[in-house]
Write a structure and sequence with these properties.
- By secondary structure, the protein is α/β, with parallel strands linked by helices.
- The chain folds into 3 domains: about 80 residues, Archaeosine Trna-guanine Transglycosylase, Chain: A, domain 4, CATH 2.30.130.110; about 130 residues, Rossmann fold; about 230 residues.
- It contains 14 helices and 23 strands.
- Strands 19-20-18-17-21-22-23 form a 7-stranded parallel β-sheet, sandwiched between helices.
- The mean pLDDT is about 95.
Length: about 500
């Protein structure tokens, strides 16, 4: 198959391989002779599109023609403009709840004293401030060496979650940092947590304790300015935490306890055709089995937001969806930015033309499930089912937000590729087989097999098996390399 018609009402087709001008492509029962070369993932017109007429893909408008477009012509940013606007009013047109398939499945997880479940049993070192980042990294290496020596067979590793904040912040900006770090300290993937402070920072340990559960037996503290040798003091605490964490052992846990984060980055024209629909089917299986999935990247809902709003479980949740979208649009405009300043250069090179085009592909990660709740940035999950989470499109910030919310892992679709990973296992799912074959050291799973002829049902089962294996301890490609980082969303004054 050279190209695809995604929806019967579409006015464009999408190339599944590089096509040459003069080639004849049959889609929707008619033959189209290509006027231009069409790169894989890019669009071509199936009908004449006059100036000002909507360009239809996925069954929805992705923008308007800004010049006449002839049959077989390349359809992209040179001849299509966005139709996005600022804050809007919305009407709740509730869709009937989809009937989702459930599965009887388990993974081997770690059950914590409070009943929460982790898929990793790691020591997390959380600096209160950037000043002690290097100390945290030294202690991370110490812990990893101790684990490698043996004797802690139930501890999966140690992560230093370094960041550039914790001092010279004020008001809500500092509170955001504290809420994010505190939520990470509560994450069930932690078997032990070292809170590493300096002593004189705004977010000093005494202040930060107000955000923590001081009854949590996993948490210990080291205040560097109070220690003669902060590394030696930290090593003693690491020894204690290793011994404590090693008491936990994997045991079978229902898939209903699984929490997955949904993310895409470095998207291309195949993202909405292969990887994102595949992730959506996996999300529906998890949600249908009473588990939880979380979708973020609010700007990449712009242009497709009504689809999600109409799936809100009730009017109160719909109102939260409206606030989620309009508040983020206000965030853009209050900084003098237009709401449509997306896609990225890499997205455009991959065939994505407008933000509507990108968003309609992105929201497919949420499958067909109804929206059960909407979370603010830094919030921790309260509801099972499909949740929407406030966060930008930025990979680092949004993946950290998913970890902060309590997701066990991130399913990260990509058409361009990235080595990035956050504090929780980050499964890279390629949209095309070329990326999977070229960057095997980055990519964990190949959704490009859809284009190669594998059916969605078979590949969804294979992805589910892989996800459950990762939940049971299988390392992702980024984990094998020790890649992990957090990025906190900053929106305030630096003193």
């Amino acid at each position: 198959m050279k190209a695809i018609l995604i929806h019967d009402g579409d006015s464009v087709g999408v190339a599944l391989e590089d096509l040459k001008a003069g080639e004849v492509v049959t889609l929707g029962g008619k033959e189209v002779t290509l006027v231009d070369d069409i790169t894989r993932g890019h669009k071509f017109a199936l009908k004449a599109i006059p100036v000002g007429e909507p360009v239809i893909k996925y069954g929805y408008a992705i923008g308007r023609a800004k010049e006449p477009i002839s049959i077989g012509q390349h359809v992209h940013s040179h001849n299509v403009k966005t139709d996005l606007q600022g804050e809007l009013s919305y009407t709740y047109n509730k869709m009937p709840a989809a009937s989702l398939k459930s599965v009887e499945a388990t993974f081997d997880g770690y059950v914590r004293p409070d009943g929460s479940v982790g898929i990793r049993n790691e020591i997390w070192i959380i600096p209160t401030v950037f000043c002690v980042n290097n100390v945290a990294r030294v202690l991370e290496r110490y812990a990893q060496d101790k684990i490698a020596e043996g004797g802690f067979e139930h501890v999966d590793g140690c992560l230093a979650l370094t960041h550039p904040y914790g001092c010279s912040q004020m008001g809500d900006d500092q509170t955001t940092t504290q809420r994010v770090l505190a939520a990470l300290a509560r994450h069930p993937n932690c078997g032990g947590v070292l809170i590493l402070g300096l002593g004189c920072e705004n977010n000093n340990i005494g202040v930060f304790k107000q955000f923590l559960d001081l009854n949590d037996p996993r948490i210990r503290f080291v205040n560097s300015q109070e220690e003669g040798d902060e590394v030696e003091a930290g090593e003693k605490v690491i020894d204690e935490l290793l011994a404590y964490a090693n008491q936990f052992k994997r045991e079978p846990v229902s898939i209903s306890k699984l929490r997955i984060g949904l993310k895409c980055g470095g998207s291309d024209g195949l993202s909405g055709i292969t990887a994102n629909p595949l992730i959506g089917r996996l999300s529906d299986l998890v949600v249908g089995s009473h588990g939880t999935s979380v979708m973020t990247e609010v700007p990449e809902m712009f242009g497709a937001e009504q689809i999600l709003m109409n799936r809100a479980k009730d009017e109160a949740t719909f109102d939260k969806c409206v606030d989620l979208i309009n508040n983020f649009k206000h965030y853009f405009t209050s900084h003098g930015q237009v709401v449509s300043e997306n896609p990225s250069p890499g997205n455009k090179a991959g065939g994505i033309t407008t933000l509507e085009d990108k968003s309609l592909g992105c929201v497919q990660k949420g499958g067909m499930a109804e929206v059960s709740d909407v979370l603010c940035y830094g919030d921790v999950l309260k509801s099972t089912g499909l949740n929407l989470l406030q966060g930008p499109g930025n990979d680092g910030v949004s993946c950290t937000a998913l970890a902060t919310a309590g997701c066990h892992m991130v399913l990260f679709s990509t058409g361009r590729g990235t080595p990035f990973a956050t504090a929780i296992p980050t499964i890279k799912i390629s949209t095309n087989s070329d990326l999977y074959n070229r960057k095997g050291s980055w990519i964990d799973f190949n959704a490009g097999q859809i284009v190669d002829g594998k059916d969605f049902e078979t590949l969804t089962q294979e992805l589910l098996d892989y996800v459950l294996a990762v939940a049971s301890g299988k390392l992702t490609k980024s984990e094998e390399k020790g890649y992990h980082e957090i990025v906190i969303w900053k929106d305030g004054v630096t003193m």
